[in-house]
Specification:
Pfam families: Glyco_hydro_12. It is built from 2 helices and 15 strands. The N and C termini lie far apart (42 Å).
Length: 243
């Protein structure tokens, strides 16, 4: 009986009760991660969004975000995301692997929809630094989906790059004080992604002049909606940095 009770308690602890946040900059602890709304472009549109933590277990998280936005179809309205609390502060030259897995699905979506589903990885010259801050040197995006004809920052500089079992087009351009490098899937939506992010880091060090002395300051995954409406479910996400 004691063993059964302990097992039940562990099961409860491993599976978080669904918790929804709806404020513009609300955040919620999510096990090894932090779930944030980040409706930073809200003023450019009309609509709303909420995000719900569904469960956590070890290094894995499941969550959902539901959004509806209108007006200014070329403006991002938000980046609801999860950020790993400790997968950061590692220098690219010291990284041996960065395994990640992301299974996601649009439960509902309008037609048309303008949105991406993406990694947003931040690097800088120091181990610590907030995303999109004066400490940022590079923003590395990996678009697993980009619908409605949207485009990343800058311009496309290379196409047909084979990495992590898929083919990518690379975009580059400046944003504030950092450079944005965006790998956009040329294979359509990748809803079941298993990869080593080190492949992407190695590529930009070898081909885009990014110094291997850069530190990973944050790894976020989420969605940038422009216009339309959708319910995006992350069934399972995990990431780690090994050195």
């Amino acid at each position: 009986m004691r063993f059964s009770t302990l097992t039940a308690l562990v099961a409860v602890a491993a599976s978080a009760t669904a918790q929804t946040i709806s404020g513009q900059y609300d955040c919620e602890p999510a096990g090894a991660y932090t779930l944030c709304q980040n409706l930073w472009g809200k003023s450019a549109g009309v609509g709303g969004q909420n995000s719900t933590l569904l469960s956590t277990s070890g290094n894995t998280v499941s969550w959902r975000t539901v959004w509806q936005w209108q007006n200014n179809p070329n403006n991002v309205k938000s980046y609801a995301n999860v950020e790993h609390n400790t997968a950061k502060g590692v220098q690219l030259s010291k990284l041996t692997s960065a395994p990640t897995a992301w299974q996601w699905v649009y439960e509902t979506e309008s037609n048309p929809i303008r949105a991406d589903v993406s990694y947003d990885i931040w690097t800088g010259t120091t181990p610590n630094g907030q995303p999109a801050s004066s400490a940022s040197s590079f923003e590395i995006m990996i678009w697993l989906s980009g619908q409605g004809g949207i485009q990343p920052v800058g311009s496309q500089i290379q196409s047909g790059i084979p990495l992590a079992g898929h083919t990518w087009n690379l975009w580059r351009g400046p944003n504030a004080n950092w450079q944005v490098l965006s790998f956009v899937s040329a294979d359509g939506d990748i809803t079941d992604f298993n990869a080593d992010l080190k492949d992407f880091f190695d590529f930009i060090v070898q081909n885009q002049g990014v110094s291997s002395s850069q530190f990973v300051q944050a790894i976020q995954t989420g969605t940038e909606p422009f216009t339309g409406s959708a319910s995006l479910l992350t069934e399972s996400f995990s990431v780690a940095l090994n050195q």
